Amino acid sequence: MTSAVSTAAARTSSGPGPRGAHRALLPLGIAAAGIALALILQVVFDPFRTDIPLCLVYHLTGLYCPGCGSSRAVHALLDGDLRLALRNNAVIVIAAPLVAAGFVVWTVQRVRGRPTDLWPPQRVVMTLFVLVMAYTVARNLPALWFIAPTSLVGA
User: Fold this and answer.
1) Most buried by CB count within 10 Å: which residue of 73, 90, 94, 150?
2) Which helix (H) or strand (E) holds 112?
3) Residue-wise pLDDT tens digits, 26-68
């Protein structure tokens, strides 16, 4: 019993874990589910024509949070309208390819059996936090009206 435990511990700490194409099943499943959900929502839900109160911050304060306009931005991206997507939420448009690249790196590392730390360094997190907060303040300034999301239906 002791040797089985020590053998298992040695296996997990001595380098890469199991490798193979079967390790891509989880990332492929996540990607397929995300794509299916996005396409279903694209067909069923149009945030430019339907007013669904998604943002509690906006409805309580009248201020745009960093996520305001993100559903409209994603919808516009899926329609191929980059300009409208950027107009509704530039942070989402910029983050989308970065998240996709991180997902690909995670998938490749997983297939190769290498451990992957998905959390970026603290400096990167703090820099992104400051940038997003600056964007949030800027999009609520009247002089920078052009980076606020497009008006809501019925608002």
Assistant:
1) 73
2) helix 90-112
3) 889 999 999 998 888 888 887 777 766 678 888 889 899 998 8
> pTM (2 decimals)?
0.73
Predicted confidence at residue 153, as pLDDT, reads 56
84, amino acid identity: L
Structure tokens at 5: 């435990």
Measured CA to CA, the distance from residue 153 to residue 47 in angstroms comes to 8
Q: Answer yes or no: are the C-beta atoms of 64 and 137 closer than 8 Å.
A: no
Residue 140 to residue 3: CA distance in whole angstroms: 63
Query: Packing angle between helix 122-139 and helix 90-112, nearest 10 degrees?
Result: 160
Q: Tokens 């516009």 appear where?
A: 76
CA gap 20, 111 in Å, rounded: 5
Q: Which helix (H) or strand (E) holds 92?
A: helix 90-112
Give 73-117 pLDDT, tens digit per residue.
988 998 899 999 999 999 999 999 988 998 999 899 888 888 877
Which is it for the CA torsion 100, 51, 60, 58, positive or negative?
positive
